[in-house]
Design goal:
With 98 residues, the protein is mostly helical. It contains four helices and no strands. The relative contact order is 0.06.
Length: 98
C-alpha cells in the first residue's frame, strides 16, 4: 500500500469529521484501510491536547528575545537600587543618622 501524505490524511479526516462521511465510504473513495483512518483520527485527538495547551504559551523568537532583554534590564535596575540603598545607609551611618 502507498504512503498517504499528511495533507491527504487531514483532508480525509476533515471529510469524516465535518461532513459525517462514513469511514467505509472514505476508505473506498481514497483506497485506504478503515483501520488506518481510525488510527489517524486517534493520533489527531491525542495531539490536539498538546496543540491547544501550547498555543497560549507559544511565543515568537522575537518576543522571547524581548522578554530576555527586559529581564536583564530589570536585574540591572535591581543592582543599581541595591547599590544606592547601600550607599544611603552608609551615608546615614557616617552622618549619625541625620
Amino acid at each position: 500500500m502507498h504512503q498517504i501524505q499528511a495533507a491527504r490524511k487531514v483532508e480525509i479526516l476533515r471529510e469524516h469529521l465535518e461532513n459525517d462521511v462514513p469511514l467505509s465510504e472514505l476508505a473506498e473513495k481514497y483506497q485506504v484501510n478503515v483501520n488506518s483512518i481510525i488510527n489517524w483520527k486517534k493520533r489527531l485527538f491525542e495531539s490536539a491536547v498538546e496543540l491547544f495547551s501550547q498555543k497560549g504559551e507559544r511565543t515568537t523568537k522575537e518576543q522571547q528575545a524581548q522578554v530576555e532583554q527586559l529581564e536583564k534590564d530589570l536585574q540591572a535596575k535591581d543592582a543599581i537600587i541595591a547599590e544606592l540603598a547601600h550607599e544611603n545607609i552608609t551615608l546615614k551611618k557616617r552622618t549619625g543618622g541625620r
